[in-house]
Write a structure and sequence with these properties.
Length: 285
C-alpha cells in the first residue's frame, strides 16, 4: 500500500510537469502578447495590458516603428501546401494500406521503404533534394520540390494510421455485401469507406499539421517564396516583438478550433458507422 501511494505521487508529479512543459510556453506567450504598444520588446511583468499587438497583426493598429509580419502571402502558401499535401498523402496512404490487406511478394521491403520517409532526418532529405534539383536544373519551389518532400514525409504517417484501421476492420461486412450482389465499387463507397472514415480523418489531420509546421525540408527546397515557418523564422532571427506572440496565440487558437472540428466529425462518423454496422448485421441475420 505504501509503495502504491508513492507510485501515485510520482506519476502525479510527472503528469503535472508534463502539463507545465506542454502548456507553459503558451501561457507565457499569451501574457506577453497583451503588453502595451507601439514601442518596446518583450517585458515582464506587464506594466499596462493592451490588445495593440493583436490589432498590429490584423493591420488595424496605428503606425509604429515595428514592421508588420510578412504573413499574408506566406500563410496562403503554407495553407495551400498543407492542403495539397493532406489530399495526396491521405489518398496514397489509404490505397497503400488497402493493398497491404493481402499478402504479396516483397510486402516487407515495400513496408520499410514507405516508412523510411518519416525516419530519414529532414535536413538530410532536404539537402539531398536540393542537390538533385540543382544537378538536373529543376527550380526549387514550394509548390514543386517542397511539395514532393512534404508528401514523402507525411505519406508514411497516413499509411500507418490507415494500416491500423484496416487491421481491425471487420471483413465479414464487405463479404456480406458481395454475397448480396453489390459490386466492389459500391461496396467500398457504401460499406468500407464509412467504416474507415475515422482513420481517413486522422490521416488528414496528421498530414495537414505536419506539412503546415514543416521547416527543414522546406528551408532547402522551398525556393525564394517563403512559407509561414520560414517567414516567422526570418522575423524571429532579427528582433523579437510582441506581435510574434500575438500571432502565435491566434494560430494556436486556430489549431484548437481545427481539433474541435475534427473531434465533432470523428464523433459523428463513429456514430454513423455504428448505426450502419448494426443495420447491415440485422439484414444479414
Amino acid at each position: 500500500m505504501y509503495h502504491l501511494n508513492g507510485l501515485r505521487w510520482v506519476l502525479g508529479c510527472f503528469t503535472a510537469l508534463f502539463l507545465v512543459f506542454l502548456y507553459g510556453p503558451f501561457v507565457v506567450m499569451t501574457i506577453l502578447s497583451f503588453q502595451q504598444g507601439p514601442e518596446g520588446g518583450p517585458q515582464f511583468p506587464i506594466i499596462e495590458w493592451s490588445t495593440f499587438w493583436y490589432k498590429h497583426v490584423l493591420s488595424i493598429a496605428e503606425p509604429s516603428r515595428v514592421a508588420p509580419l510578412p504573413i499574408g502571402d506566406a500563410l496562403l502558401r503554407s495553407l495551400t501546401l498543407a492542403f495539397a499535401t493532406m489530399v495526396v498523402a491521405t489518398l496514397l496512404g489509404t490505397l497503400s494500406a488497402q493493398a497491404f490487406r493481402r499478402n504479396f511478394k516483397g510486402s516487407g521491403v515495400v513496408f520499410y521503404l514507405i516508412v523510411l520517409g518519416m525516419m530519414v532526418p529532414g535536413v538530410l532529405l532536404g539537402l539531398g533534394m536540393a542537390l538533385v534539383a540543382d544537378q538536373f536544373d529543376i527550380a526549387r519551389t514550394w509548390w514543386g520540390t517542397a511539395f514532393a518532400l512534404h508528401v514523402v514525409y507525411t505519406f508514411p504517417f497516413a499509411f500507418l494510421v490507415m494500416l491500423a484501421i484496416f487491421n481491425r476492420f471487420d471483413k465479414t461486412l464487405e463479404e456480406a455485401s458481395w454475397m448480396l450482389g453489390v459490386n466492389p465499387v459500391k461496396t467500398f463507397r457504401k460499406v468500407t469507406f464509412p467504416m474507415i472514415f475515422p482513420g481517413v480523418l486522422s490521416s488528414m489531420l496528421f498530414a495537414f499539421t505536419l506539412s503546415y509546421d514543416e521547416f527543414p525540408r522546406t528551408l532547402f527546397t522551398g525556393g525564394s517564396e517563403a512559407t509561414m515557418p520560414i517567414a516567422i523564422y526570418g522575423t524571429f532571427s532579427v528582433e523579437i516583438h510582441p506581435n510574434l506572440f500575438a500571432f502565435g496565440v491566434l494560430t494556436t487558437l486556430a489549431s484548437f478550433a481545427l481539433l474541435t472540428i475534427y473531434g465533432v466529425l470523428m464523433a459523428l462518423s463513429v456514430r454513423r458507422s455504428k448505426i450502419q454496422s448494426s443495420g447491415l448485421q440485422e439484414e444479414i441475420a
